[in-house]
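hey can u check if this looks right to u? its 364 residues, i copy pasted from the old doc so theres a chance i mangled smth
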Amino acid sequence: MNTPTPSFPLNAWYAAAYDVDVGRALLPRTVCKQKMVLHRTAAGQIAALEDACWQRLVPLSMGRLEGDEVVCGYHGLVYNAQGRCTQMPSQETLNPSACVRAFPVVERHRLAWVWPGDPARADPALIPDMHWNDDPAWAGDGKMIRVHCDYRLVVDNLMDLTHETFVHGCSIGKRAVAEAPFVATHGERSATVTRWMDNIDAPPFWAGQIRHARGYTGKVDRWQIIRFDAQCTVNIDVGVAEAGGGAVPRGDDPGDRSRGVNGYVLNTITPETDRTCLYFWAFARNYCLGEQRLTHELREGVAGIFREDELVLEAQQRAMDEHPDREFHNLNIDAGALWARRLIDAMVARERPATPVIPIRRAA
């Protein structure tokens, strides 16, 4: 029997929840097909345990939290934050093998990150940079949505924003996005797609933002700089500025965006199964920082835009399931997505067990 090749590496940090969603209650999550239960200790630390009791495999998330320990809702076994059973019903002697797996977890950039692979390799320095989420120079908010598709389809979608012209034509899309040239580059753990659109009409969303923040209503220079970081985080530097105002980089001049509005679309995608994923996103801006109403309006507006993506991606997954023999055909615009997939595939390949070498027996 052939074992299916996994589509995601385990030795990587994945977002399991927004920090505000982990509290003094049990929160079940599935990450890379591994069921976990998260909770916050009285000291404020987040713990992540395997969501299956040692005794009869009943999900611990069906139990309750007492102090800093999880009590199984079936027979009352008690587990500490390290996964060790500390109490069993009707006996004083504890079976030394009674434990559940505890996953490495780090709270950073308003997210709880878990490591489903080898805990000895869980280096916090590998957590992707999403500092805009909690940087005082930026304001924003986001949400989590569960998308019924292979997580790599979300990455594909984010790495090629040509679809804005057609999927989001009433908000952020413009023909200029599909027509503008772009540059795709890559490194050992990242891939970047850069697109500048000079002297264009701003799409409705950005026209409203620059009018509100700067009082400007004319032509704009627009940019989209998409960066993928392995395992599956995509941060997108976006915005518009007054046309000809110096925002466009020229040679060694990085450009001056002060006469415009700048945002970051922050995205990290966590595979649940082969066909479902948790999509954590946020929109951060560096203008009108004190306007909480604007933060709320932008979060809800972006949520509506991403709902359009969700419908397309889930339809794509259904079509793939209906036509398993069909292959994708790639265009120039797919360059960024292709590099991202290669980086993902390389991480998966590095975790694949080496094929054993069968020695050749010499003739006697």
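The chain has a mean pLDDT of 91.
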